[in-house]
Amino acid sequence: TTEIYTLSLHDALPIFQVEERKSDEEMPYEDDESDEEMPYEDDESDEEAESGSDEEEENEESAFEVLMVHLRRPSAADECEKLIQRAKSLSSNGKPAKAKWCLEKVIELAENVGHRRFEGMASASLGQLYWRMQKNDDAIWHYSTALEIAKEEWDTPTKGSAYAGLAIAHLSKKDFDNAEKNFLKCLSVADDLDDSETQDQVYEYLANVYMSQGKHAEAIRFFRLCLKRSQELQKTKSEATFLSHLGNVYELLGRDDEALEHYLARLEIVSRVRDWEAVHQTYLKIIQVCVRLKQPANAKKVQEKADELAAYLASLASDAMQHAGSCGGN
User: Which end of the chain is more exposed for a tag (fewer CB within 10 A), N or C?
Assistant: First the structure.
């Protein structure tokens, strides 16, 4: 999944912290396709302080120089925000190394000025970046860091994002117990924020997690929540999908009457929207259930419809291939 939360930015204090700057880091090499330049770093002076100068004067001079450097630069909040947005753009454009560099710079800057909120946001973004790179252990480490900071800073959106990221990373590792635990915590945050979009996504994730764990009663509960939301929002395709999922669960439990009820409801929807592939698949499901329920007449009737539809779909596929061949010949 893409980001479940849009992280809100916190107003930051100006950078007036006095400390010696670290040596510049090189930007990882990648082709420069973007018009934007990467954030600059001020060069450290190579000049040495004159020998014999007073230590106190030296410290004051160093403090003044650092202060002037910071006064010439944008505020910490502006720079962190720009770097985070730049990282998102780079990541979506397939440049993870540059995105990682930007996010690490945010963390470095945020640590220098004591701005923990931005540090947490960048850590959450790094977690997502590593997850996309299929480095789940690294993703879990960064999401855990983001979660710890979000709790300290009372940053509820980032906390929810971290829980979601942890859940998905654990799910990628087939660690269903930890996935379940973190999805439930993410759902609690979404409930607090009245975030219905996130609630809907987590309902579906949890239903599938419970199916993987063999917790069918819980899976039914969350698939029903998904179905209810789809009906409320009039999302016909999603409604048909969740009816199919519920039918499958009831089949697994041997509750064929309830499975048939849901398959028939799905059939009505996919027939209405003329999704013939889905209609054919649903016919086959209904035939299996009718056979188990010892309804041979119904099974035969549906089988005839399935055969007729299969022939129609085969003719459509044949016509499409002939048309493609004639176009290629021309």
Answer: C
CA dist., res. 260 & res. 248, Å (int): 10
Where do we find the tokens 């299969």?
310
Q: Give the rounded distance of the alpha carbon of 104 from its chain centre.
A: 20
In sequence order, what E strands does 178-227 have? none
φ, ψ at 217 (rounded to 5°) = -65, -40
Calpha distance 53→122 (Å, rounded): 42
Amino acid at 70: H
What is d(CA 100, CA 123) in angstroms, rounded to the nearest whole number?
10
Q: How many Å separate Cα 288 from the centre of its chain?
A: 37
- What is the CA angle 324-325-330, rounded to 5? 100
Contact present, 67 and 16 (Cβ < 8 Å):
yes
CA neighbor of 188 nearest in space, from 213, 159, 217: 159
Contact, 90 vs 98, CB < 8 A?
Answer: yes
| Residue labelled with tokens 């944008």 | 74
For residue 320 the two structure tokens come to 């499409």
